[in-house]
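User: I'll paste a sequence; please echo it back and then give the predicted structure.

Assistant: Echoing your sequence first, then the prediction.
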Amino acid sequence: MEWKAEEDIICCEVCVYEYVIKKNDTEIKTCIETIKKHASICRRGEGSIKNRIQNIKFWLDELYIENNIPVTPLSHAANQTKKCLLDCLKNTGIYVLKEE
């Protein structure tokens, strides 16, 4: 099942809050449980959500944004996740894209 942008946004917001802004050492399982509380994503399996968190980790590392996400990044991270993450980071004032 393909991921909707709305689902990526939820994952990005939770991860950015927990691991970038708060710099918490939250276990992945706890983070997944928090994400699954959202009605639009609750049907996703834990493995699928963990993969999305690994995508977020990849893009944060690529952008040199310090984070405490305790997973190995996936090298084949989705571009949709990157777009949602960039929007989330911009909305929180963490990262601003240069105008082209």
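Residues 5-21 form the longest helix (17 residues). The mean pLDDT is 92.
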